[in-house]
Specification:
The chain contains 13 helices and twelve strands. The chain is an alpha+beta fold and 314 residues long.
């Protein structure tokens, strides 16, 4: 369930509210923006309008640079009353509520221009990732460069998402942080393992628990600079050691509500350490252990010119 507080208290939630009323002009004066948001009509939301708003919200999650001007503006206290009105309208919408419902099956999205080299096993991929990261930590970074900033499990671990709006396809088609603007993809129906051990991230407390249980300190890597710019926090940074998580869980799942509650913030792990949820598509589930992959040709989807919503091809 997505609440008004989820949208009001976190950067991606506030941005989602703004994108839902994207006809609002954005002057530099916060009071003028607040007045415009307070007066904007709030119509019945359509699936397409929610899809476009969520996509824009994910695209604006910039984990290698400071918050953009819109995010900074939306955090101003002068805008809180107007955003509260919009947030309450949004969460009252059946279409927005549908985003967080566990429906639409599980789908793997493969973009047509993705390279498909030989896939290592899941276990080998996790071991390689952990070793490469430890080598990176040992080598260190001068602290002023950008590099790897995402905290998802590594390729080629299987990522699945739901399709809350069948006409728009799986979330991994369009709700993508730092997308590459792909225009063609295939969506493959993927079996759900009812016996899988699932760690669910429904908010910052869950992510912090992952980091405390399986911490990898990445403070000496380029992440220190990227995450400082994105969150304004300086200090020690950790992320989950997915190779360790895989010893106890088969799947890690970030809910849509968990993404709104977590993406964009520095997550406090303890008094000294913090982490981030970066590079995640809302609703993503990553398989950390061996499994049956999707089979068959799947469904073809396209978005010519990287504009508008994705549509299934006949």
């Amino acid at each position: 369930m997505i609440t008004a507080a989820d949208l009001l208290d976190h950067p991606r939630g506030r941005r989602f509210c703004f994108e839902l009323v994207n006809g609002v002009q954005q002057p530099d004066d916060p009071d003028a923006v607040a007045s415009a948001l307070a007066a904007v009509p709030l119509p019945v939301l359509s699936e397409d309008s929610v899809v476009v708003a969520l996509e824009s919200t994910a695209e604006s999650a910039l984990w290698w640079q400071p918050a953009d001007a819109t995010d900074a503006l939306l955090s101003r206290p002068e805008l809180r009353p107007a955003l509260t009105r919009i947030a309450r309208w949004a969460v009252d919408s059946p279409v927005v509520r549908q985003l967080a419902e566990p429906q639409g099956g599980a789908w793997t999205v493969v973009f047509d221009d993705d390279d498909q080299p030989r896939r290592p096993s899941t276990g080998q991929a996790l071991r390689d990732w952990a070793q490469q990261l430890r080598d990176e930590v040992a080598a260190g970074s001068p602290g002023v460069t950008s590099g790897v900033w995402w905290t998802t499990p590594p390729w080629p671990l299987l990522q699945t998402t739901r399709a809350p709006f069948p006409s728009a396809g799986p979330l991994a088609l369009w709700a993508v942080e730092d997308s590459f603007g792909q225009e063609h993809a295939r969506a493959l129906s993927t079996p759900i393992d009812p016996a899988a051990r699932v760690f669910t991230v429904d908010g910052p407390d869950d992510w912090a628990a992952l980091c405390r249980r399986w911490p990898l300190d990445v403070t000496t890597t380029t992440r220190r600079n990227d995450w400082r710019l994105a969150t304004g926090r300086q200090g020690t940074w950790v992320l989950p050691d997915w190779s360790g998580v895989a010893a106890e869980y088969d799947v890690v799942h970030l809910t849509v509500a968990g993404w709104f509650r977590t993406s964009g913030d520095a997550v406090k792990v303890d008094d000294d350490r913090a982490s981030v949820v970066a590079g995640w598509t809302p609703g993503s589930a990553y398989r950390l252990t061996e499994h049956d992959r999707a089979a068959g040709a799947g469904e073809a989807w396209a978005r010519p010119g990287n504009f508008g919503v994705w549509r299934r091809l006949d």
